[in-house]
Design brief:
With 387 residues, the protein is an all-beta fold. The protein has one helix at residues 210-215; strands at residues 2-4, 28-29, 34-36, 46-48, 57-61, 72-73, 76-78, 88-94, 98-104, 114-121, 127-135, 141-146, 153-160, 165-168, 183-190, 195-206, 216-217, 226-231, 234-250, 259-267, 273-279, 286-291, 298-305, 308-316, 328-335, 338-344, 351-358, 366-386. A hairpin with a 2-residue loop joins strand 23 and strand 24 (308-316).
């Protein structure tokens, strides 16, 4: 049974279910929508603000160097398209030509677990090879990572040093160690009869953040998909994905049934993002309440289980579309088999009830946040209360 409201159209797949809102929310009548206040910090059992977690990063390059210093080679500084600051590094390849740019650094690469950066792609289909190398200054020996699954526009990329492949100029595996590395090179080769343009910004080296990993859980081997991200002077959680579903589950609580879960999201791409609940982060089973990314209006409630994925509730927002980097809030409430979904477009607004449904597939599990599809979003202010 399902009810959907707060949309530009109305859909009832089965029998109408009229819920008893009980005494938890103060009901505010606004005509055709039901509105509810957010879960207050003082009422929440858990409040996770990522600015409280220390970022463990080493700056490699902000790409704010003057021409003639910093990066050298075929790249040029682009002041017309930068993710942060005044400029980025741009590479343009024509008709299969290989272009590259190099940066010599005194950073101790042996102490770095991840390379983190922003990568902008004009057309993902235009390039044949896009890679980053870390090696000695002559690049007789180096470690290479080839970028895949990049979307059009800006992508947040975090690469574990374990993902690099050791090579040398002759194409054989190098005997060079990370302790000997002193330079970074980015390389681009377009497809024949194509023009490929790529930009880089905000490059840094990251160490494993045990504080962050102690608070959130990802499937083994996927830890590199989340990182602390500096936004407007605040540390927040950045999470990216290139698969069907990826969830970061709070370390605690592990198995809960009735609760309220809320978070604030800054979408960065067209990929949907939202809340994961009554789930298992290891196999991905559970409920996924997601809202469309940049320029989208759709929201969905899906459940993933051994037999596959089902969309059990969906709709469209009845106001303007979601906009990149403009925050919105999501909230879910579960009581028994009844699930209620809420959204607000700004911190000044109340939450609007999008819809509710009765479903008995999952009765308990972990809670967290999710990005589905190919893209990334920024999260903060995750609040949880057991009912």
């Amino acid at each position: 049974m399902a009810i959907i409201g707060g949309m530009s159209w109305f859909y009832i797949p089965q029998n109408v279910f009229t819920s008893n809102h009980e005494d938890k929310f103060d009901f505010v009548s606004t005509g055709d929508e039901e509105q509810y206040p957010p879960l207050a910090k003082e009422d929440a059992d858990i409040v996770l603000n990522f600015n409280e977690i220390e970022a463990k990063a080493t700056e490699i390059s902000t790409f704010e160097d003057r021409p003639g210093s910093g990066w050298y080679g075929d790249g040029v500084y682009d002041s017309g398209n930068a993710y942060e600051g005044q400029q980025s590094l741009q590479l343009i390849s024509l008709d299969g030509k290989t272009v590259s740019s190099q940066y010599d650094s005194d950073i101790d690469f042996a102490g770095i677990d991840y390379l983190d950066m922003m990568v902008h792609v004009d057309n993902p289909l235009a390039y044949d090879t896009l890679a980053i190398d870390v090696g000695d200054k002559e690049f007789k020996g180096y470690y290479r990572y080839k970028f895949t699954n990049l979307s059009q526009g800006w992508n947040i990329v975090q690469i574990s040093t374990d993902q690099f492949v050791a090579e040398n100029k002759e194409g054989e595996k190098t005997t060079m160690t990370w302790e000997e590395a002193g330079s970074i090179r980015v390389l681009l080769m377009s497809r024949p009869n194509s023009i490929a343009t790529v930009r880089f910004d905000m490059m840094q080296g990251l160490m494993k953040n045990e504080d962050l990993l102690n608070r959130l859980r990802l499937p083994r081997g996927s830890e590199y998909r989340m990182t602390l991200y500096s936004q407007y002077g605040q540390n927040r959680l950045a999470m990216r994905n290139n698969a069907m579903s990826m969830a970061a589950q709070l370390a605690e609580p592990r198995k809960v049934d009735n609760f309220i879960l809320a978070a604030t999201i800054w979408p960065q791409t067209e990929a949907p993002s939202g809340l994961f609940f009554r789930g298992n982060y290891n196999n991905g089973d559970g409920y996924y309440f997601t809202v469309a990314g940049d320029l989208g209006k759709e929201w969905t409630l899906q459940k993933k289980y051994a037999e596959g994925n089902d969309t059990i509730l969906q709709g469209e927002l009845n106001n303007e579309s979601i906009i990149k980097n403009e925050p919105f809030g999501v909230m879910v409430e579960t009581r028994g088999n009844v699930i209620k979904l809420y959204l607000r477009k700004s911190e000044e607004e109340q939450f609007t009830l999008l819809g509710e449904i009765t479903d008995e597939e999952f009765t308990q599990g972990g809670v967290g946040v999710t990005v589905t599809g190919n893209g990334w979003s920024v999260f903060d202010d995750i609040r949880y209360k057991k009912l």
